[in-house]
Specification:
Blueprint (H helix, E strand, L loop, with lengths): L1 H5 L7 H8 L4 H7 L4 H7 L7 E3 L8 H10 L7 E5 L13 H10 L5 E5 L18 E5 L15 H10 L13 E5 L6 H6 L8 E5 L6 H6 L13 E5 L3 H5 L12 E5 L4 H5 L9 E10 H8 L7 E11 L4 H4 L8 H12 L4 E5 L2 E4 L3
Parallel strand pairs: 1-2, 2-3, 3-4, 4-5, 5-6, 6-7, 7-8, 8-9, 9-10, 10-11, 10-12
C-alpha cells in the first residue's frame, strides 16, 4: 500500500496514459501537452487524433487550425469535424486553400470531413478538398456557384495539366462516395447537376434545400444525359410537397437500393416507391403516415429486406380485417402494426424506433 501511495502518473505505461487522455476533448488535450515533456509527446501520439471534433470549441480560428495542423494532426487522422464562422461576429476567412493543401499532405488517411456553419465561398471548387475524402457533410454552410464542379476552369485547365503531365487540384477527380447536404441555402439546381459528373457518388442526402426546384430533381433521375445513375442510396427530407413529388420515382430509378424519406410531406414519395425494382432498404423518419397508406405501398415491395420507422406518428384508420388478420387484440398498437408488416413482408426486417399511434377520430 505504501508503494501505491507513492506512485504517480510517471509509473503508468504509455498505453494506459493514452487511453486516459483519449477521454479528453481537443482543447483539453492541447492544455495537457503543457504539463511536461512526456505529456507533450503523449499528446502528439496519432492514436489520440484519429477522430477530431472541433465543433464545440467556440474559439477556433484559422490561426488555431494552423497550430493544430503543424503540431498535432498527422497520418492518424480519419475524421474531422469543424464549425466555421458563418454565424460568428468575428467573421473572416476560416478554411483557406493553403491550409487545405497542408491538410492534404499531412493527413493522407482523412476519410470523412464534416463542416458546420462554414462559409466556403472563398473556395472556387471542391477539388481543393483532400482527395482521400470519402464522406463530405455540409450543415448550414454556404457554397459558391461552381463549388461541386470538378473542373470549373474549362479546357484551359485541362491543357495546362496535360502539358505538365500532373493533374492540378482543379482537375482532380472527386472520390467522394457519400455527400450530406443539410440546410445549405445557396445549393441550387446547378449544384445538383454538377453532382451528376461525380463517378464515385453512391450515397446522397438532401435536407431542407429551398432552392432545389421540381425540374432540377426530375432532371437528375436516370436515364438521362446528366443523371445520378451511379447513385444507390438517396435520402430526401423536406417540408415541400413539390420536392417530394418531383422525385420521379413513379417512372422507376434503376440501381437505387436504399431510400430514406422524412419531413412533413412523405406521402407522395411513399406512394411511388412500389415502382423501384431494385429497392432493398426503406427508411421513414420524422413524419406522419396513415397505416393504410403504408400497407398499400409496401405490398408491392417484394424485394425489400429492411424497413425502418424512426420517430413516425402513425395515423390509425379503419383497416380491413383481412389486412390485420386477427391482430386487433394486441395491447400495443405499434407492435400490432409491426406484426402486420412482418406478415406482409416475410423476408423483410422491420425496425420500429420511438414511434407512436394516433387514432383518427374522423
Amino acid at each position: 500500500m505504501a508503494a501505491v501511495r507513492c506512485a504517480s502518473l510517471e509509473c503508468f505505461p504509455e498505453n494506459i496514459l493514452i487511453d486516459i487522455l483519449s477521454y479528453l476533448n481537443v482543447r483539453e488535450l492541447v492544455r495537457s501537452s503543457r504539463v511536461c515533456r512526456r505529456w507533450k509527446q503523449l499528446v502528439k501520439d496519432q492514436r489520440l487524433w484519429r477522430y477530431v471534433d472541433l465543433s464545440s470549441w467556440k474559439g477556433v480560428t484559422s490561426r488555431v487550425l494552423w497550430i493544430l495542423l503543424r503540431q498535432y494532426l498527422g497520418r492518424g487522422l480519419r475524421y474531422l469535424r469543424l464549425r466555421g464562422l458563418l454565424l460568428s461576429a468575428r467573421g473572416g476567412a476560416f478554411l483557406t486553400e493553403p491550409w487545405l493543401q497542408g491538410l492534404t499532405s499531412k493527413c493522407p488517411r482523412l476519410r470523412r470531413l464534416c463542416l458546420l456553419h462554414t462559409d466556403l465561398r472563398g473556395l472556387h471548387s471542391c477539388s481543393l478538398l483532400p482527395p482521400t475524402l470519402q464522406v463530405l457533410e455540409l450543415h448550414h454552410c454556404e457554397v459558391p456557384p461552381a463549388f461541386f464542379t470538378q473542373n470549373p476552369s474549362g479546357s484551359e485547365t485541362d491543357r495546362t495539366a496535360t502539358e505538365n503531365e500532373a493533374p492540378s487540384s482543379a482537375s482532380r477527380s472527386v472520390a467522394i462516395q457519400t455527400l450530406v447536404l443539410n440546410t445549405v441555402p445557396s445549393f441550387s439546381d446547378q449544384h445538383l447537376r454538377s453532382l451528376c459528373s461525380w463517378p464515385h457518388l453512391r450515397h446522397l442526402e438532401l435536407r431542407d434545400l429551398i432552392r432545389v426546384t421540381v425540374a432540377g430533381l426530375k432532371g437528375c433521375v436516370p436515364p438521362g444525359v446528366q443523371s445520378l445513375s451511379h447513385l444507390t442510396h438517396l435520402e430526401l427530407e423536406t417540408s415541400k410537397r413539390t420536392q417530394m413529388v418531383a422525385l420521379g420515382l413513379g417512372g422507376g430509378w434503376p440501381g437505387l437500393e436504399g431510400l430514406g424519406l422524412g419531413g412533413k410531406e412523405v406521402g407522395p414519395g411513399l406512394l411511388s416507391v412500389g415502382r423501384l425494382p431494385d429497392l432493398r432498404s426503406l427508411r421513414l423518419h420524422t413524419c406522419r403516415l396513415a397505416q393504410v397508406m403504408v400497407l398499400k405501398s409496401c405490398r408491392c415491395l417484394s424485394q425489400l429486406r429492411m424497413l425502418e420507422f424512426s420517430e413516425v406518428e402513425f395515423i390509425e384508420d379503419e383497416v380491413r380485417e383481412e389486412e390485420t388478420d386477427g391482430l386487433k387484440s394486441e395491447d400495443d398498437p405499434v407492435m400490432k402494426f409491426r406484426r402486420v408488416l412482418c406478415q406482409l413482408l416475410p423476408r423483410c426486417t422491420v425496425c420500429v424506433n420511438r414511434c407512436t399511434v394516433t387514432v383518427n377520430n374522423d
